[in-house]
Amino acid sequence: MTVAPAVRLLVVTDDCLFEEYTAAAVRRSPAMGVRSVSRLSAARETVADGGVGCVVLDWEFSPARIGIFHRSLRRERPRLPVILAAGRPPTELSAVGSYHAFVRKTGPEMGTSVTDAARVLTTADVADDHDTTPATVE
Fold first, then answer.
1. Please, are residues 132 and 114 in contact by the beta-carbon 8 Å criterion?
2. If you average pLDDT over residues 5-31, what whole number do you get?
3. SUPFAM superfamilies attached here (predicted)?
4. What is the rounded distance in angstroms from the CA atom of residue 82 to the CA atom of residue 101?
5. Is residue 117 within 8 Å of 135, Cβ to Cβ?
6. Domain boundaries in the chain?
């Protein structure tokens, strides 16, 4: 009998290494499952189908398109935890918007950073509070 993971991550990226490192970290955590998509339409469908406990957005995927997707996600599912991942600090990103945690994309440890942030965000009932300072995991 297979037990469904307690936390299902949706990773939106076209970065094969980021996807691989995150999947490897999730495999070490039996309470998590992961699905990666490289199309925003697939991300929308997956969120609409339900069962997603946390969304990870790769800012470098396409900043403008990720920004639009993120804003619509915040309107439709304001309590769904969002982790933003980027190769540079959030202060250097334009029009980031509200997110619950930030992960710096730097080597194999970035996958562990994603799972650590997701574990914290999904354990604590994330409120619809866009004025809080997001956590940064580097």
1. no
2. 91
3. CheY-like (SSF52172)
4. 7
5. yes
6. 12-137
Give every CB contact of residue 68 below 8 A, 6+ residues apart in sequence.
Answer: none
Q: What DSSP element (H or E) covers 75?
A: helix 63-76
Q: Give me the count of residues in the chain.
A: 138
pLDDT in tens, 77-129: 988 999 999 988 887 876 666 788 999 998 888 999 999 999 888 886 544 44
Check if the beta carbon of residue 17 is closer than 8 Å to that of residue 25: no
- SS3 state at 59: helix
* 15, 60 Cβ separation under 8 angstroms: yes
Longest dimension (CA), the chain: 47
Task: Say which CATH topology domain 12-137 has.
Answer: Rossmann fold (3.40.50)
Using alpha carbons only, what angle is made at residue 62 by residues 60 and 65, rounded to the nearest 5 degrees? 140
